[in-house]
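ok here's the first one, seq then struct tokens
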Amino acid sequence: MDWTHPDRLPEIEKQTFRIIQSYLNLAAGKAPKTSLDTEICISLQKMNELDARIFPIISPLQLDTPTQSCEILQHVMQQTFSDGKINWGRIFSIILFGCILVRKMPYTEVHVDNVAECIAAFLLDHESKWLCRHGGLVKSYFSFFLGTWGEIHECSNGW
């Protein structure tokens, strides 16, 4: 897939990359550009609670390159989905983990895009059918975070 030109990607791939990229850019301190980014910002506030629990676990990691972040992320994603179960709690926990990795390194668009690519590629390679059956990432993101936030704790506790 050509992640450097999102306009050439099929719609679900564009949506998946866009939502992850927006989330990571906001987490890295970039101001929202669109109303979608603003909605993501609202969701970020809700995710701070989970962030506070996860960050201390990975803070001792030494990350020197974006490649190291992606290698760690690949391992975490493989472990998270190793039992074959998928749900929105797991997906958004992975995105949150990517956010924490991005925050551990000095901000660069290359690093954000590398982590966004890593997450999007994994989800699309392994879970694209599930994502399509459940309305895609953008639609479900807002339904999940703005409509049923309390369920994230139940979902993420099961992995």
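and now the second one, same deal
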Amino acid sequence: MKKIIILITVLLVVIFLVILAVRSLFSNKPEVTEVDPTPTIVLPTVSENIKVDLTHPQ
């Protein structure tokens, strides 16, 4: 069950990253680049938590 949960969270993070990348590619507005740094700060911590779960299975 934990593997399924980890896979779902990884897929959600990947989809979120793709959406952010597409938004940043198609919108060259300075307002968007000022708003976007907040999710990019949150994402690395989430991916680090997932890596810790994968390397140390309980």
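notes on #2: The radius of gyration is 14 Å. The chain has one domain: 2-55.
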